[in-house]
Amino acid sequence: MTKPTWRRTIAIAMAAAMLAFSYHTLAFAQTPSPRGITLYEDVKTGALYRKPGRGRVAVTLGFDEPSPPPAAVQKQVQDLKQSNEELRAEFIASQQQLIKQNSELQTRVDNIEPAWRDYLANFRDRFRVGTLVYASYKMYPHTGFGPSQFDNNQWPGPGNNLYNTFDIDRAYLNFYYFPTDGWALRLTPDVYKTYGTATPTANSHNSSVSSNLAGDLSYRIKFASIQYDKLLDWAGDATKGTTIQFGAIPNPFIPWEEHLGTFRYVTSTPWNYLGLTSAQLGVSISGPVKFHERTYVDYGFGAFTNAKYYQVEQTNTKQAMARLTYYPFGSTWDFQGLGLTGFYDYGYNNTAPDNGSLNTGFGPNPSAFGHVANAHLTRWAALVHYTAEQWGIAAEYDQGHNAFTGANLFSGNGPSVFFTPPATASASGGASNPYSVQYYNFAALTAALLGNSRTVQQGFDVFGHLHIPQTPFRLIGLFQLFQPNTHVDHDPLDFYRYMVGVEWQINEFVRLAIDTQNLQFYEGQQPFSTAYANKFGNVFVPVPDTKSGAPKGATFAPPKYVTDPVPRDTHAIELNLEFAF
Amino acid sequence: MAKAGKFLRSTGVIICFLTFGCARFASQPTGAVQIAAQPVPRVRDCAVVQTGSPSRFACNGKIYTSFQLAKLREDEARRFAAGQ
Questions:
Q1: Which of A131, A265, A389 sits opposite B47 (nearest CB)?
Q2: Does the interface predicted TM-score (ipTM) exceed 0.85?
Q3: Do A334 and B49 touch (CB under 8 A)?
């Protein structure tokens, strides 16, 4: 071993001894307190040493073992703890309440619907819209004068055989609104074809433009009413469904009979054909009387304008109508079973009061009919009817007073000279003989027989339907015999009409019928005495002859007889379509 | 004797025919009662009660609207198409 090696060995041994000692010393100095470090302070210099030594005192740095706090401090601590617990409890309670509120709010937010959706739902439940359209194809093998089947049903007069047309006979839009329980508002516009004289209109001093009004579609209100259908619900089940209506409303008879007959889209009911419209403005009450779920009485009555629904009321009077139907064995649904029905109508022609005192007439005698505008009119009907699901039949007797005028007879079409007599057919006369004008004598005869205020009408009707089993087809038919004035012997205007057809129920909304409709004036064609006609209306009077060179006081004498006074028949073959939604 | 037998046979056949008629050929079921499902009312078999918006029909003593009858028909068609 060399000297350096020896020294290195000693140095290593000393270092190891020092490390071993310092390790033990360090461990000794730092172990006394689990919460701090004990050092040794030189009391003279204040220096701190890790090791004890002379003049050094042990100093423990760090947390001393806590001495027991005083009672007041303990109480404060206790209070603080209690306060903390209370705050904690309050915080937790608030937190829970907040969570709950958030949950409820979320639920409400989830349930919130857009306003438009709520509006639509409300609208849907309270609003209904529909339509009713009658369309047809009509071909007339024979054309003649006569009443119309529909408001828009006009055809050309005699001499226009094989006239044919496609028609929209009716086009309703039905709007119903049910604002609250029991109340309903109905609005039904009717689109129809217009008739009237279309004349050119001047659009400058030197120019004019042609009218474009011929045959235009126009618009009018058929029904516009408000109704309440719980009028007598308080009285019990017997009168439940009693309804009061106000506005442009169905009258108590015509719509009822249209439903009884079931084929209004094909032809009109008897009194409707004769001129009583299905709607007027007014107020009415209708309802059933029931016992044990069966209807024994069904009625309707009301006060209405004398004007039709599309006319302007001119009178200072009103008309009253009432219908009562009695089902002796009770009816389980509308019309079911045997029914007996009576109808009465009392009213006036639609004439302004100051026209009532005016004499009226026709042609050369403007006062032939006297104060006919003041005259009242009545209509009544008695029906016996039986309705089952597969068939139905009704027989009707009608009587009226002043209820059928020449205007009613010629509502389909009539002689031009009836609506506008020739200028020479006047009290002042003219240069030509009016009695030689085609159809003038017939027109004057019609005016005489129907224009006075003492006419009495009478009619007999039968109509019904029969379902052909296992098919979608039904046989339908109507026969109406009518005497416009029973005071006239062999009245050339007496007529009957009949309709026979087959109906195809295509589906729930569409029906199609092929049918023939015929109007026949059944009296024999024999000359009609003008002297006899003058007893009803003095219209066949001499007319002054004013032509140049005529002797003073010369007149055109009326004929003694009206030849061929019975109008020609009208026959039609029709396809009628109904769409109801 | 042969004539008498033929007469008796003929008489018996005639009596049987007059007594039972065509009952043998009737299609009505015998024995167990057949229970048919209530058929869906078809508008063509119903009475027209009112034409309007909507129209009403009487079927088997009950009143239906045109919409109700249409729905019944369409539902029936769907069931038929589904093979039910």
A1: A389
A2: no
A3: yes
